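Self-study notes.
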Amino acid sequence: MRTHHLRSGYKVHTTYQSLTTRGLTTLVKSSIPSKIAPSIDCGTEAETLSVQISLLATTLTVHNIYKSPAKSINAEALFAAASKDGSIITGDFNAHHPFLNSISATNQTGRHLHALLQEYPDVTLLNNVTEATHLKGGRLDLTFLSSAIQRDAKWQLHPVLTSMHLAIEVKLELEKYPPPPPPAKRWSPEFANWEKFETAMTVWALEYIKNPHIDISTLSLDFNKQLDAAASVSMPQKKHSERKHADAWYYNSCIKEMNTRINRTRKLFRRYRTDELHDLAVEIIKHSVQVSLEVKTDKWYSWCHEANFSTSLANIWGWFNKVSGKYSTPRVTHPDPLAEANRIGNNFADRAKSTNLPLQTINRQRTLLPIRNNIIETACNMRDDTDSPYTMEQLNTALAKGRKDTAPGADFITYSMLRSMGSHAKLVYLHLITGHIERLCPTTWNQQDTKPLPKPKEPDTYRRIALISCTEKVAERMVLNRLQWKIGQLHHHLYAYRSGIDT
């Protein structure tokens, strides 16, 4: 069995075709979480493919069945499972029986299914037995449904799709995931009017300086609101596009290799800025552009070669739209990202909690906890030379390190906005940062924008990325600089917070 994605937005679950099997396929919309489930044994002569679909309030299992006319099937375990859980059992059973109004003589499969329907009343046959599912008049394609999810279920033949077997359409009234929320607004600092932005921030900052009696958390919220308001009058919003490079109409393994080379060279150059690496990066980018042009040309010629008198205008216009960039495949993430992020976070917390440690270690921690808390409390109450307020020079030094606008947090504030807000607004920002000396921290700085993203090689599993606000990251950078000055060189076994060393 295998699973792969179609560019048209569907996830394809298949079983392999062999000399003795035809193979089965189940397509599920990519925006709906689905995975291949353990198949229920229906005998060695029947082909089965079970796919589990996760909806908002229901887990639905679709059992795809094929049994050739000359073979047998034992579906008792399948019906037993369907009587307990929400399931659809559908496929070509090649069954004949009077309860199906079959035109052929009753066979063993028909008798077997008829007996199972009597034995398991919680499983229902959806077919309208007066309508044939085969051009020769047979009712070979059957759909069974768990009674628990049968609410307003509708079974009908599709008006258009047909081959020797007529296509069947089944509609279920199930609660599904709500549509994803509209994308949040994002600003385009590269097209900003920074004079207008600084003016708006300065007017607000002067008002605050006149009346500074406000708590840290409220000030942080007002500060973020004003940055957003200043951005709305000084810079346009970005156009949202969920297009990935792998969705490009010309993407292939050659383009993937070129992108990998460029990314590696750029990372190396950012780390070691030498003339040799600069020249190497320029040459690799030139070569990549030339290769991309050749790949695009070959792809376009292949489309032109495919075109003939039977090619529809819709396909031809589709090619033009892909080349022009008008249509792009949307990036599919989890349909309920908050719930998935919480699940991943809780799973990590369960695995990382102290109760998983050996009993000897837990007891040792309990013994040391009061001592450690006392040391921390004593240190917090002592005055130190590092408790002096931060200066404007230290803030500008920390802001200079964030030269490039990386992915912002949930507030969509970028480094360029913090650098360009003017000296009066920076004084207010310094007041926010200096609050930690008095053990004050804005509540919004304890929050992060967490997103689950599908793993490239395992699209059914997700990894969590956490985006922290740039206002908090600048403050952390200033605190870190002061801590490193105080304690000196970090231990060589510590891999976090060391420049040039990843965790």
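Second protein, same conventions, sequence then structure:
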Amino acid sequence: MSTVAILTIILPVFCGAVEVNCSQPDHPSFLAALSPAFDLSAIRPVENQKTCTNISVHFTLYGILGVDEKSQLLITYIWLYYWWKNEFISWDPVQCGTDKISLPKEKFWIPDIVINEFMEENKAPSVPYLYLYNDGKIKDTFPVRVVSSCNLNIYTFPFDIQNCSLTFNSYVYYAQEIKIFLGRDPKTITELSKNVMTTMGEWELVDITAQKLVNNDESGLYTDMLAFYVRVRRRATMYVVNLLLPSCFLITLDLFSFLLPAESTDRSSFKMTLILGYTVFLLIMNDLLPVTGNTIPLINVFFSLCLALMVASLLETILITNLLSNSADFSPVPRWIRILVLNCLGCLVCMPQKTEKPKNSDKRTMSVVAEMKADEGTGTEGPAEEDEALMELKSLSRVLQAIRCEVEQQQNGKQSSEEWIQVGFIIDRLLFGLYIAFISVSFFTIIIVWIKSYNQ
């Protein structure tokens, strides 16, 4: 009721004469002349309440304090500028001795403009004063520590670029009462921000853009909104040096371990040491990796593939060592393995198949055994006067034929063992080629993503 009474008494006076008359060109007289306008600080400063108050907004980005990937937050420090006009106040700068004056904020109406993405209380120091100009314009500037929500996309970490928005709008007034306008060109805002920015950490400012938005509610009224889009890019040098390069060195070292002899135990122990070192490396560097539930970063997939390849190479080394040591006890190579591995994959890795020995030896062995049996049969029916020397020669011949059969069987087992060993060598060379392909693709992918991030 007191506000209504003040409006009823004072507002018609201002509607008739808005000019502030100063008795003397000094601050005390000027402040005394402004005192009637201070009683109207509770209402929007327009003579006609149907008149819209235009508020100009812009800011300067002073620092990028950090990005919290887990909580999806962008932390920035900005200096905010508001401009609007108070229609109740104007004066002659010559009569009053100044064209602007700094006064406490509580003596004026302040627009209730908020940042929609705000997630925490503003912890920046407060500024209790604003500037009032002779034509009624008011300039309000103050720092803000903005902790804003931002939908972070870390798929291309550490070469990611984040686009976060800061949306300004009135909390109570509709667009018929308050409209928000861009007070400065976005390119100028970007240039000034880059010039004055002192705190960036691992992030650097790419650009700042602005866009007008409209928010309709259920009653059919709408709120005027102004959105600023702040694009920041992560400085990837630290992550390349601390994460990607050591991982590439370890996987390359595992690649050259294929040059060690497969039959020695040093190769398997060397690979186990590499796997242990790589696991410790991932545990130490785990704090540098982003944690979020939206997407899995591509670098995590790269680390998982590197570890999987190291484990696969260790298993392959164990397989080859087993083939080299126990292949003589194995059964002959199955036909499908001979076709798939020895013929197809062997040609793929440029390892020609060894020619098989002719199987005439088996037929020859069978014929010799038959002859031996025939000789034994005829020997029992021969005359008693057969020469003793001839009998010794035949006995010696049978012993030699038995030795020959045993040697040929050993040669057949040796041929089967060589085929198993050749299967192991083909698998070893195939995994070696897979290592080279993976390292090449990973290297070019990292280079392309890095270049693409800096061209955006």
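Instructor comment on the second fold: Confidence is low (pLDDT under 50) at residues 1-17, 355-362.
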